[in-house]
Amino acid sequence: MVLSMDRWVGKVAIVTGASSGIGAAIAEQLLVWQEEKDRLDQLAKKLSGKKGKLFPVKTDLTKEEDILNAFKWTKENLGPIHILINNAGYAETGYITDGDTELWNKIFQLNVIGLSIATREAVKDMKANNVDGHIIHINSLAGHRVVNFRASVYQASKFSVTALAETLRLELNSLKLKIKITVILD
């Protein structure tokens, strides 16, 4: 079976964390938000003239106000959101026994809270516009089993992403919304 991306042509997609790696690869034909605007501008320049259009939107996903402003900009300038790809994430290794609270907050703020805020706002917009949308969480094997005890808090954040995706699936089904949730392991 060959899956076609044609159903998404002309639709609005948001990719978080798109200035490098997996996010940059995804962003080649999708809308992106990222805190590192210079890198996104370079990517937009590289992709000019190709199918699709890239709109770099500087967004700090650890700040709710930035996320809300980015959603507002997207809706006002591009229209309803059809796809959200939660790709942004932060990883740092360290032991719980001598861990750094500030670092733990940063990991959870980006990997869990920022993802949750973006998901909430995307679903609200999809619901308001009767969009059969798609939410995709880029996760990690570390969100399904402990693979390295030194990555303790990072792994806990990724386990949270797994639980959030399953909770969202159940919620969307109970509300009878035609919005899909997918988790992809990187």
Task: Write a concise keyword list for the protein shown above.
45% helix, 186 residues, alpha/beta, Rossmann fold, globular, 15% strand, 5 helices, Farnesol dehydrogenase-like, 6-stranded parallel β-sheet, SDR_fam
Low-confidence runs of at least 5 consecutive residues? none
Strand segment tally: 6
- Tell me the quaternary state: single chain
What is the architecture at the second tier of CATH?
3-Layer(aba) Sandwich
On the 0-100 scale, what is the average pLDDT?
Answer: 84
Q: Which class of secondary structure composition applies to the elements?
A: alpha/beta
Number of domains: 1
CATH topology: Rossmann fold
Individual helix count:
5
- What is the helical fraction, as a range of percent? 40-55%
**Judging from the principal axes of the Cα atoms, what is the shape?**
globular
Protein name: Farnesol dehydrogenase-like
Keywords: Oxidoreductase
Family: Belongs to the short-chain dehydrogenases/reductases (SDR) family.
Pfam family, one: adh_short
